[in-house]
Amino acid sequence: METYTVFTFKKNKKASKEILNTIKDWLIDKKIINPIPEENSKFNIYYGDLGFKEATDYDWFGEIEFIDKQCELQHVLGWDLGIDFMLPEKIVCPSCKTNLIEGIDPATFYGESNKKQDDEALLFLEAIKNGIKSFNAGTEPLIACFLCNKKHLISNYDYNLDMVFTNCAIVFWNWPELKLSFQEALKQKLGSQTIMLKN
Length: 199
Ligand SMILES: [Zn+2]
Description:
The chain is α+β, with helices and mostly antiparallel strands. It has five helices and ten strands; from the N terminus they run βαββββαααββββαβ. The chain has a six-stranded antiparallel sheet with strand order 2-3-4-9-1-10, with helices on one face. The chain has a two-stranded antiparallel ribbon with strand order 5-8. It has a two-stranded antiparallel sheet with strand order 6-7. The radius of gyration is 19 Å and the shape is elongated.
């Protein structure tokens, strides 16, 4: 499995491209990444470079991907898991504050057992799953809570960090542990809402 350390934030910021370009230039300037992106890559992926020692105490490095497209990040990070939808632990409605998938058993959800599941919750999950596709395609859908009937933007439900709807992320693919000083510098550049996730 690919390993990652990622810096992102949940709320959409309009200036994400500018923020990412500033950080890209900073990483190129410090020779932490090579200025030439990976050849033929449809992704925004760069190789590490000889200045990588500023980012880690180890003697190897991986690649860095800059994501400036609207996406649900956990499904990007888990691309090699071979499943098209990763069940979060909870999905809490911002209005009625209820965990709408309380009774959903993961084993049953993935077809490994056949306990009775809540039909409304399953339909809701289907809407979330399709909603991720729309979000990734650039439109943020409204999804109704089946308990209070209020509609919310898909990114406004609380998934803890099992899902992160964003348009700005920097993914360190297959890097060793990053230095704390480097993590802090990156977080400062991305802003106070920065979340760091790693597997
Ligand atoms: Zn609700």
